[in-house]
Write a structure and sequence with these properties.
The chain is mainly α and about 120 residues long. Helices cover about 65% and strands about 0% of the residues.
Length: about 120
């Protein structure tokens, strides 16, 4: 999922299983890894992600810890959800854009300073 797509995502519009899946993917874990950490079979975890079953309440505290999310986000799509996965190419693209914006800002600031000097040098009386 691209960063821009992530912020367009509305968790409250997704299913419970969809939020589990997104959180697991954002944590960069396979179904097998997440299931193993929680002590359930991969099939059980997959059933949760596919909305064929729901975890028992006693699974929730460990699940939200494993996935790095809040309980309100998992249950209702509100509150602290997963952070977006950002690939190295995304980071490099952001850095390039930041560099370009910084150069543009410095040029604009220099132009503002030059225009202010010109105004100060004018005799407005």
């Amino acid at each position: 999922m691209l960063v821009d797509d992530f912020y367009q995502y509305h968790a409250q519009d997704d299913t419970f299983g969809g939020r589990i899946s997104l959180a697991r993917e954002s944590a960069m874990q396979t179904i097998e890894e997440a299931a193993d950490q929680l002590g359930v079979t991969p099939q059980i975890w997959m059933d949760w992600e596919c909305d064929r079953a729901a975890p028992e309440s006693y699974h929730m505290p460990l699940m939200i810890g494993i996935l790095g999310i809040s309980l309100p986000w998992l249950v209702a799509g509100q509150g602290s959800g997963p952070t977006p996965f950002v690939s190295a190419s995304d980071v490099n693209a952001i850095r390039r854009e930041l560099h370009t914006a910084t150069v543009d800002a410095v040029r604009a600031q220099n132009r503002v300073q030059e225009l202010l000097r010109q105004l100060q040098n004018l005799d407005l009386s």
